[in-house]
Amino acid sequence: MESVLVSACLQGVPCRFDGRGKASDAVTAAIGDRRPVAFCPEVSAGLPTPRRPAEITGGDGHDVLDGRARVVDDSGHDVTEEFVDGAERALEAARRTGCTEALLMARSPSCGRGTVYDGTFTGALREGDGVTAALLERHGITVRPAPGA
Ligand code: SF4
Questions:
Q1: In angstroms, rounded to a whole number, what is the distance separating the alpha carbons of residues 7 and 22?
Q2: Closest residue to atom 6 of ligand 1, CA basis
Q3: Which of 11, 24, 48, 63 is deepest in the core (most CB within 10 A)?
Q4: Does the beta carbon of 11 sit less than 6 angstroms from any atom of ligand 1?
């Protein structure tokens, strides 16, 4: 059976910064008859739940991977290392389970695809990818933003 990597919060795992999950029927429908591999890059890297919200400052996930931008929480603490580590663990999980596609949570500094929060903690968005989405894309995994997320 084909496997698809899915943001764990979209499978109802309570791993978001606010300690909640966000399961949805639209995501279940998008998974279809494939086997979902639920994964949370931030928790896999050892970040706690709940945790302070974090955003990418100075670019998007590609800029983080290239050392041009950082991930910082709303207290100013730099969590770039954890976000990059979580992205690498997500790539390992995708490879280990044979996933060629990932269905990831929209706007997240880890999982966002196409748009992410802009680093101002105001809810404003910028074009770009989260750190995990960027790393997966760079390694040939098709990343899609989850519908309705
Ligand atoms: Fe969900 Fe991804 Fe954030 Fe984990 S890192 S809570 S999987 S959006």
A1: 10
A2: 16
A3: 11
A4: no
Sign of CA dihedral 99, 108, 21, 29: negative
Tell me the whole-structure pTM to 2 decimals. 0.98
The residue contributing the CA closest to ligand 1 atom 1 is: 9
* Below-70 pLDDT ranges, the chain: 149
Distance CA 99, CA 58 (A): 30
Tokens of 135: 């790393």
Residue 94 CA to residue 132 CA, distance in Å, equals 11
115-140 burial, b if ≥16 CB within 10 A, otherwise e?
bbbbbeeeeeeeebbbbbbbbbbeee
pLDDT at residue 149 in the model: 67
Question: Using alpha carbons only, how large is the chain's radius of gyration in Å?
Answer: 14
